[in-house]
Amino acid sequence: MSPRRGPELPYSVVAGVTPWRTGWLVASAKLLGATFAPEDPKIYDTFMEILEEHPSFSVIVVNAPIGFIDSPELGVRTCDREARALLGRRGGSIHNAPTRFALQHGAGWSETNLDAVTATLLPRYQEIAAEMSPYRQRTIFEGNPELSFYQLLADTPLRTSKKIEEGLDERRAILVEKVPGISRVLDAQFDGVPRKHLLDAAALLWTARRVFARAAKRLPAEAEWDSEGMRMEFVY
Q1: Which of 44, 95, 118, 126 could form a disulfide linkage to 114, CB 3.0–4.6 angstroms apart?
Q2: Burial label, 30 (beta-carbon count in 10 A; 0-12, 13-18, 19+)
Q3: Could you tell me which of 163, 167, 164, 208 has the C-alpha nearest to residue 185?
Q4: What residues make up the domain containing 14?
Q5: Residue 3 lies in a domain
Q6: Which residues have CB under 8 Å from 104's CB, separation 6+?
Q7: Closest CA to 163 of 191, 122, 195
Q8: Does residue 2 form part of some domain?
Q9: Residue 5 confidence (pLDDT)
Q10: What integer pLDDT is reported at residue 108 of this predicted model?
Q11: Is residue 47 included in any domain, yes or no?
Q12: Which residues of the chain have pLDDT under 70?
């Protein structure tokens, strides 16, 4: 006897995901036709909990690397290099993805040459890498909030850094103007969660909507795969 399945939902759910401390911040929205309805954001302890959410997410755009160069001597991913060039003055916000060598050996190895942000988030990157497969790239995509804002601003980089109040205000103003109902995400209250993370998750949620609608762009334009068959790309 085949297992019983629940009734088909009349809507789909998409999500923008960003790592936070020892967990993940998720901004989601229901989609039904032209209706886009953001929900209250949540914090998940593990990436697997996101994958096991019910109803399942039709599209996830995550601010974490998917697809890796094997070792440092092979250089950097094309998508990282092209994203920096595209963003111009904001290109410094794109960090090189760690290599598979770094994922396997950890941030303590001097050979990895990790920047401070990547070294801090390496456990989250290791976590997502352990769960990913080429099959899962049908629904899970790598994004970057700065690329999302670049698209929202009609292919124009942001003016200011999110490290300063002016930059946070700039990002909020863009999201409120462009994304219906996004205040539900931006006004959420979590102990210890910086405002910038809510802005990042909201921007990635917008990109998830674009992916669902098959309107998102990819970097690089020509597909590039790593040694395990994973696409190395950004969507925005």
Answers
A1: 118
A2: middle
A3: 208
A4: 10-236
A5: no
A6: none
A7: 195
A8: no
A9: 38
A10: 61
A11: yes
A12: 1-7, 107-113
